[in-house]
Amino acid sequence: MSRHILIDSSGHTTFEFDGTNTTDLAEAARRFNKLMAEGYIPAESSGDGKHYVPEQSKRVRRFLFLS
Question: Residue 9: exposed, middle, or buried by beta-carbon count in 10 A (0-12, 13-18, 19+)?
């Protein structure tokens, strides 16, 4: 399962989606673009407790959106 995790001053919200389902992917893309337009910054976990902004072309299963 893939995830978008939205972190802001009110806490966090997790949106899970099936990365093999075209409907889920379309909704995830819409959410991603909306959050980017609102000024959120996507970051990917490197697995060692650190996060970084990935290359746009890279396929990522989990994003944290930070405001």
Answer: exposed
Residues spanned by the domain of 25: 9-57
Predicted model pTM? 0.70
Q: How many domains does the chain have?
A: 1
Q: How far apart are CA 15 and CA 5, in angstroms?
A: 6
For residue 48, is it within any domain? Answer: yes
Single-letter amino acid, residue 29:
A
CA distance 38 to 65: 11
In this prediction, residue 56 carries a pLDDT of 56
Contact yes or no for 52/46 (Cβ under 8 A): yes
20: number of Cβ within 10 Å: 8
Does 16 reside within a domain? Answer: yes
Q: What is the pLDDT of residue 60?
A: 55
